[in-house]
Sequence to fold (80 residues):
Amino acid sequence: MADNRALIRQWVRKEALVKRGELTLAGLRELDLSALPLDEPYAPRPLRWKDCHLLEWAAGDVLVTVIADRPARLSAAFVG
Fold:
């Protein structure tokens, strides 16, 4: 999995955008998120894409991206 982490990170971001209605499945290939960092966010970090706020983090083999209208933060109960 380590060799595919950048690909998986981009997929998780795009999947979150599709689920939120910001992107359609037909638009997956054309969407360029290359301006967003691909390093491992072991602590939750905020990112921006257009008018969306992303909160993402990694814990072991789990990669998470959350999309919101305004900046979000992770409750201490979920960080560990």
User: Anything to note?
Assistant: Strands lie at 45-49, 52-59, 62-68. The first strand starts at residue 45 and ends at 49. Residues 4 and 10 are 10 Å apart (CA to CA).
